[in-house]
Amino acid sequence: MKLRFYGVRGYVPTPDIQYLRYGGNTCCTVIYGDGGELVVLDSGTGFCFFGDDLLAGPHGRGDGELVLLITHTYWDHLLGLPFPGVVHLPGNRLHIYGPDSARGSLEIVYDGLLSPVYSPVYGLAHIGATHSFQAISTKPFAVGGLTIRALPLSRRMNSPIWAYRVEEGAASVVYITDVRYTDEQIWQTAVTFARDASLLIHSAPYTRDEEIEDYGHGRVEDAIDLALTAQVRQLSLFHHAPTRTDDELDALLAHYRADLAQRGVELVLDAATEGPLFDVPASIRHQPSAREVP
Amino acid sequence: MLAPGQTTLNAFLCRVWKMKAARAFILYTVVGVRAANEAVTMEVSIWGTRGSYPVARAEMLRYGGNTTCAAVRVGNTHIVLDAGTGLRGLGDALLSQPEPPRRIVLLITHTHWDHIIGFPFFTPLFEPHTRLEIYGLQRTQASLRTTIANALSDPLLPLGFEDLRADLHFHEINGDGVFALGDDVVVRTAQVNHPYRALGYRLESAQGTLCFIPDTGPFHTVLFGDERVAWNGTPATSRAELSALAQMRSDVLRLAADADWLIYDAQFTEEQYLRFPHWGHSSYSQALEIAEDAAVRHLLFFHHDPHRTDDELDREVAAQQLCTTKLRVHAAHEGMRLSRELPL
Q1: Which chain A residue has its CA at the smallest distance from B280's CA?
Q2: Between the N and C ends of chain A, which has fewer C-beta atoms within 10 Å?
Q3: Do A120 and B66 touch (CB under 8 A)?
Q4: What is the SS3 assignment for A168?
Q5: Which of A221, A225, A224, A173 is nearest to A201 (CA)?
Q6: Bridge partners, A162 (sequence order)
């Protein structure tokens, strides 16, 4: 299983030189299964560049397929979907999973996003690729050789926020974004869900010291605590604040890495970076039979 | 008792002081008045140039990756054109001034995402002293207020107008609008050729004239209205469509006539236009044709395609400049400031 970040920024894109080393496009992460499966986590503006890269393969010929997993429907996780050419090419197949909200199904939200007042696409009906929407549930399902698990972790107003876990052999990726640990139950659920993951991608735009109000995200310290408690191998901080420069992110990582080293704990800590394709490592203790996932 | 030398010194210092006071007075009256006059210039600055969606890419940073936004200041009148992601930087810049403007006018060409996604990141919205006057196209389908409110609120964002501390006022206008902003600026509008209709704006002042048309197709192939155009490769041929297109073209020419600066849709290469005439955008040569026919002084390519690199834009500007001696061709870039003294 390989992974590439196409968009790592939270809230709003940051097209400025101080932000480009880590990246300035909004949330989109792509998982490549060993059997050629494509699983995309969220469709922020990073999705546009992923779509461009697909043109060289079967998707460019109208013979491609991909699975899109949506955590929630805020702009920075959604707006990139209608732009890539491959989405408009008949023959391509999009399978979109995500939570319904009290305001309507995911399909209705996307349709509203593409309505003529906001988009020249004039609604979902005019997306050329075959597309299906499926309300996500906690029942695990397979995409080729990958196993997908999903869990509702949090809620903002009427919008539930889900987390995803994608597994293949000894490798597993857990993706948690826009989740605030407001009570012990959410925390315990997240710990169980992330248990023994090889890679935890966690939104953490601010540190505990920086936060002046509840922005609806876990803090950097929460993400690290979760990774340690769940015995995760590698933690990638994600959804970087639009004011966080590359140099600040370097300094932040150095500080928390030194802290981890001092405590003598083993955790690979990094910040999600757009561009490089990398192998998802095996988990520290790969014991599929003992895994507890709700 | 003072020594004679000291008296002389005091008299000398007194003379110097008087001279300084006189100089200060002269400076205050002459230069001050001049400075006051100079304050009424038309300052145009560009904050976002990209079309369709924002791009954070190294090879596009010079022209910029933020979506459409420009600012115009004439005296105390602060005008913003479109609310793409460029609006975020503008808001921070306005608030960092010693005396941030209290009244800001936002003129929206249309509400496609790339023209409104900067709105919730405009920091003056969270200042209780801001009064924001928002102008946009009147529609029977939904009010401008509802369109903006729905874009910001659950399930798309966790915001509502009640979270904004600024005082918002909405003004719904049409494609034949004329209205004054403050004492110094007259705004004119025209409907342009874009899916679901969009506006172009002309800002006239004694200090300069700017015309802003970020999204429009040309006026010979496809006529856009509220209905979706199902492109089947056949250009418009009916007499009604052709006459509507001709009318729209002449309205656009009148809107841009003799402007100092024309900021105009130039998303496409010629080859791209032929493939996507149903998208409602223009090519470089189509933009130049309008600019020449409207006799503007400076044409600024705008709404850059999200795939267009800085180097490609450099080449397009050079190539189009070779085709005309009547005006200067530029590509708008983030941070660009327009002055009337920009060399021709």
Answers
A1: A120
A2: C
A3: no
A4: strand
A5: A173
A6: A152
Is the Cβ of A21 closer than 8 Å to some Cβ of chain B? no
Tokens 């293949």 belong to residue: A168
Q: Which of A24, A45, A74 sits opposite B156 (nearest CB)?
A: A74
The owner of tokens 């509802």 is: B146
pLDDT at B22: 53
Contact B114, B87 (CB under 8 A): no
Rg (CA), chain A: 18
Whether residue B195 is preceded by a cis peptide bond, meaning omega within 30 degrees of 0, is no
pLDDT score for A286? 59
Taking the C-alpha atoms of residue A107 and residue A124, their distance in angstroms, rounded to an integer, is 8
CB of B262 within 8 A of CB of B299?
yes
The beta-carbon neighbor of A79 closest among B56, B57, B113 is: B113
CA distance A169 to chain B (A): 35
Q: Say how far apart CA B52 and CA B304 lie, in whole Å.
A: 8
Judged by DSSP in three states, B36 sits in helix
Interface of B with A (CB under 8 A): 50, 52-58, 60-61, 64-66, 85, 88, 111-113, 116-118, 121, 139, 141-142, 147, 150-151, 154-158, 195-196, 226, 228, 279-280, 306-307
Give the residues of chain A that fall short of pLDDT 50: 287-294
**Half-sphere exposure in the Cβ direction for B308 (13 Å, CA):** 30
d(C-alpha B123, C-alpha B111), whole Å: 20
Does A289 contact B at CB distance below 8 Å?
A: no
Q: Does A16 touch chain B (CB under 8 A)?
A: yes
Global pTM value: 0.91
CB B135 within 8 A of CB B82: no
CB contact (8 A) between residue A122 and residue B151: no
- List of chain A residues whose C-beta atoms are within 8 Å of the C-beta of residue B155: 72-74, 101, 103-104, 109, 157-159
Q: What is the pLDDT of residue B283?
A: 98
When the pLDDT of each residue in chain A is averaged and rounded to a whole number, the result is 95
Q: A220, A175, A141, A136: which is closest to A30 by C-alpha?
A: A175
Q: Is the predicted pLDDT of residue B96 greater than 70, yes or no?
A: yes
> What residues contact A14, with CB distance under 8 A and at least 6 apart?
A24, A242, B56
3-state secondary structure of A279: strand
Residue to mutate among A76, A100, A117, with most B CBs inside 10 A, is A117
Task: Measure CA of the first residue to CA of the last residue in chain A; give whole Å.
Answer: 23
